[in-house]
């Protein structure tokens, strides 16, 4: 922490609503409270008050003199037991906050002093675990990975367990970019298999209200409308591209397919990268084997 006479001046969204007023018996206690709070960037004390400002809250501070009776303490590092020397003057510093609960998120901020004012700039970077690939979706950054094995025939439940064990869910295809990625990842597994084709479960469960022949003839149950999703970050679903004559999992005789798979083919391209509805317990045919699933997780966690 670096202490100076001064005060916070401007705040994110034009207010200081994200600040926390605490009861502190002394300035030392006020500063210590900020130091011990992971996201606290600045502590301010004027008269008898102690206010803590978290990451992203304060945008600017004003340097004052002792007559102001107003002090600020700015966190300029999260490790070390040595305080700066008394002659230290903060001009520019960059600090990284690492939250152990958000393993793949980096919170970074900088403090710069110019013309008697401190400027605070913030940046949040969310990444994916190793071997996962990040995509930008309308609502979040999302990590994808095909998980599977050529040694196992998977049901949908088994594919879901793969994803859950990787802190994710069975993922869908938000965009053409995601579909192309998943197709290539699936092909890497497929070329190692004795089966000419592979199938990988993706997000999609047939709605009970779309399970009869009469129901699937209605607009409410047409195509993708017939399916709900474990992947709650799907928006446009433009990566879903049906294989020819699909979905075909509901006939006049009843429902035959309530889950969704992504096709891979070793050499042919007739259905490679296309989506099909399949039985949820589907494991293999003479031509193709179900070898896993497409898993997804929010970036940064």
From TrEMBL:
Pfam families: PAN_3. Residues 1-116 form the PAN-3 domain. CDD domains: CLECT. Residues 128-290 form the C-type lectin domain. PANTHER family: C-TYPE LECTIN-RELATED (PTHR47629), PAN-3 DOMAIN-CONTAINING PROTEIN (PTHR47629:SF4). This is PAN-3 domain-containing protein. It comes from Caenorhabditis remanei.
